[in-house]
Amino acid sequence: MTDRTRIFRQKTKRAGACLTCFMFSFFLSSCVPKVPVSDKSAKVEFFSMNTINTIEVRGPEAEEAANAGRDEVYRLERLLSRTDPGSEIFMVNAAEGEWTEVSEETFNLIRTAIRYCGETDGAFDLTVAPVMDLWGFTGGEHRVPDDAEILSVLDRIGYEHVLLDEAKSSVKLEIPGMSLDLGAVAKGYAGDCVIKIIQQFDVKSALINLGGNVTVFGSKPDGNGFRVAIKDPEDPEVYLGVLELKDTNIVTSGGYERFFESDGKVYIHIMDPETARPAQSDLLSVSVIDPDGTRCDILSTALFVMGKEEAIRYWEEHRDLGLVMATTDGEVLVSENLKDSFEVTGGKSVTYFG
Ligand code: ADP
Ligand code: MG
């Protein structure tokens, strides 16, 4: 192991999810006996979508809401998993060039994902599955493929070969060996769905953390937003900054979350669909803040692949997005629309753009 990879590994071990939430205090304070009904709170923690998730809710029906939120994540995992033989995505992937009818929900999510593939110029590509398999990220047996293997897998990548028939709610993968992977969007979409479910109950606020994808609903009892910290990808014990958020999502993608190393080189789990290799980004992490969780998840992955210059260009055409990016040069770049809510806490120099 080289020094660099050793440091990387040590730091990553401590990293865990890249977001830490500072907003638990009001839940703790409500643990004293005889709390008024309106201050009731509940927290569920569960494993789904390959990660640890927590849902915390405050309000008279906190417990029912938190449980229903958890069941919603389980439902979506069964629908969207690429490895569960009972899922609709599995069916589409197994259909070998035939049309597959899917639920309206799956159809709409695939259609949304394809729209973003185009909008991000293919930096996000929902057909990246064969690349994940090739590098061993699917089964966990990581390996570095040779150039011939990489060339051959490139023939099976391309969102433009995913065909949609809206009238029949059907999907077809045009090229043999193609496969869909919603790994960069499912948790973001799940956040959106869980919020909708939770709002069907009598609740005041909620905090949902699906493997680092954070969704906040409402505010703290004192009316202030939830304080959510973004970890420094180079030192998980340090925060780049803290954001005060209400009714929105924050989703972070970074190479330090999942990776393996071979011959002293680090290979990350975010792929560049153009090269079928791990993305060579000049960014260490990208956090996207937006009320649409699906959009956050897709764009955090896509902007990471694009790198600093292109990500800023993308933001210039989508100025409603909130962006916090840590670069390999040790800079922190924050979109100017977050100026009032971003509090610098780390030692890195922060530049606002826009
Ligand atoms: P995580 O889900 O680990 O928090 P991301 O949202 O960035 O992080 O998603 C990474 C996952 O998305 C990978 O594990 C893989 O399944 C898939 N993926 C990797 N690269 C891409 C890409 N360029 N476009 C679409 N999906 C990708
Ligand atoms: Mg993502």
Summary tags:
single chain, 354 residues, alpha+beta, 9-stranded mixed sheet, 4-stranded antiparallel sheet, 10 helices, 31% helix, globular, binds adenosine-5'-diphosphate, binds magnesium ion
Task: Summarize it.
The chain has helices at 3-15, 25-29, 62-80, 88-94, 104-119, 129-134, 147-154, 186-198, 293-306, 308-316, and strands at residues 19-21, 41-48, 51-58, 100-101, 162-165, 170-173, 205-210, 213-217, 226-232, 235-245, 248-254, 259-262, 265-268, 271-272, 277-278, 283-290, 322-327, 332-335, 342-344, 350-353. The chain is α+β, with helices and mostly antiparallel strands and 354 residues long. Helix 9 packs across helix 10.
List the helices and strands and how they pair.
Elements: H1 3-15, E1 19-21, H2 25-29, E2 41-48, E3 51-58, H3 62-80, H4 88-94, E4 100-101, H5 104-119, H6 129-134, H7 147-154, E5 162-165, E6 170-173, H8 186-198, E7 205-210, E8 213-217, E9 226-232, E10 235-245, E11 248-254, E12 259-262, E13 265-268, E14 271-272, E15 277-278, E16 283-290, H9 293-306, H10 308-316, E17 322-327, E18 332-335, E19 342-344, E20 350-353
Parallel strand pairs: 18-20
Antiparallel strand pairs: 1-9, 2-3, 3-7, 4-6, 5-6, 7-8, 8-11, 9-10, 10-19, 11-16, 12-13, 14-15, 16-17, 17-18
The structure holds adenosine-5'-diphosphate and magnesium ion.
